[in-house]
UniProtKB/TrEMBL annotation:
Highest taxon above the source species: Bacteria
Limits of the Prephenate dehydratase domain: 3-180
Protein's name according to its UniProt entry: Prephenate dehydratase
Enzyme class: lyase
Enzyme Commission code: 4.2.1.51
Chain segments annotated as coiled-coil in the UniProt record: none
Keywords from the UniProt entry: Amino-acid biosynthesis, Aromatic amino acid biosynthesis, Lyase, Phenylalanine biosynthesis
InterPro entries: ACT-like_dom_sf, ACT_dom, Chor_mutase/pphenate_deHydtase, Preph_deHydtase, Preph_deHydtase_CS
Gene3D superfamilies for the chain: 3.30.70.260, Periplasmic binding protein-like II
Pathway: Amino-acid biosynthesis; L-phenylalanine biosynthesis; phenylpyruvate from prephenate: step 1/1
């Protein structure tokens, strides 16, 4: 049985995504994104699932930078799931003033306007995950709250005091499924939205028209790019690489042509993964 690691504990959105995607497996939670990816690198687990991008807060830079700089793994699938943030409280809570509200930094940012309007005096405390925030509330009692999902409430015996507190309705997160040694995935019967390929492009130096020339190598071949993002190389100011998502599977004609053209410009292109992309709807019952 395949060993699948995820950003835990059990009440996280990552665990919800794992449950929705995989047909079966041995599921292991990790306290942080680096811990999960390191476990894949060591071979402790076969597959890792970590958050990659949120529609409101953008890319999860810790995931991207760790995949680029710390480990050697391929993205073998991705899934996009709706994110519904709720205010979770102790079952004995009856409307007392909240002194602290706990959650992951991205979850707190997704609910910024709600928190500013309704709980301006509460201290906002960051945790490693929304699931961990729910654990804290379960242990600390009625004067604190967490931001998380219905699964976190169920796992920790909390109640949903206010549902759907995120500032924007179209709140979705992309999760990356990564492996060091490729193995087939046993997934549920979800339709594949598209096939994607992610590449990393580095430049020899910053020069006039560099980005234009990189994009032109894809454009004239009519290869659609769904995302392009620059990140620092961590080798000095002004040194960046580009992450590019191409909406098609890797082939033996177009991609080698792009690589050859970019190498002629002094650039390098590295394949980070070619994979199916799933859009998964996860029902979110509101339980008091």
């Amino acid at each position: 049985m395949q060993r699948i690691g995820y950003l835990g504990p059990k009440g996280t959105f990552t665990k919800m995504a794992v449950d929705a995607l995989f047909e079966k497996g041995s599921f292991i939670s990790y306290d942080s994104i680096p811990a999960c990816l390191d476990a894949v690198e060591r071979g402790d687990i076969d597959t890792g699932v970590v958050p990659l991008e949120n529609a409101i807060e953008g890319s999860v830079h810790l995931t991207i930078d760790y995949l680029i700089h710390q480990v050697d793994q391929a993205v073998i699938a991705e899934m996009t799931v709706p994110i519904k943030q709720h205010l979770l409280v102790h079952p004995d809570y009856n409307g007392e003033n909240l002194t602290h509200i706990y959650s992951h930094s991205h979850a707190i940012a997704q609910c910024h306007q709600y928190l500013y309007k309704h709980y301006p005096e509460a201290e906002l405390e960051y945790t490693a995950s929304t699931g961990r925030a729910a654990e804290v509330v379960a242990s600390e009692g009625v004067h604190v709250a967490a931001i998380g999902n219905h699964l976190a409430a169920e796992e920790n015996g909390l109640k949903i005091f206010t549902p759907n507190i995120h500032d924007y309705d179209n709140n979705h997160t992309r999760f990356a499924v990564v492996q060091k040694k490729k193995q087939p995935l046993e997934v549920k019967n979800h339709p594949v939205t598209t096939q994607k390929t992610t590449v990393m492009v580095t430049l020899p130096k910053d020069f006039v028209g560099a980005l234009h020339q990189v994009l032109a190598a894809f454009a004239w071949r009519k290869m659609n790019l769904s995302k392009i993002e620059s990140r620092p190389m961590k080798t000095g100011l002004g040194n960046y690489f580009f992450l590019i998502d191409v909406d098609q599977p890797y082939d033996e004609v177009l991609f080698p042509g792009v690589k050859a053209e970019l190498e002629a410009l002094g650039c390098t292109l590295k394949l980070l993964g070619t994979y199916p992309s799933y859009n998964i709807d996860i029902p979110s019952p509101v339980c008091q």
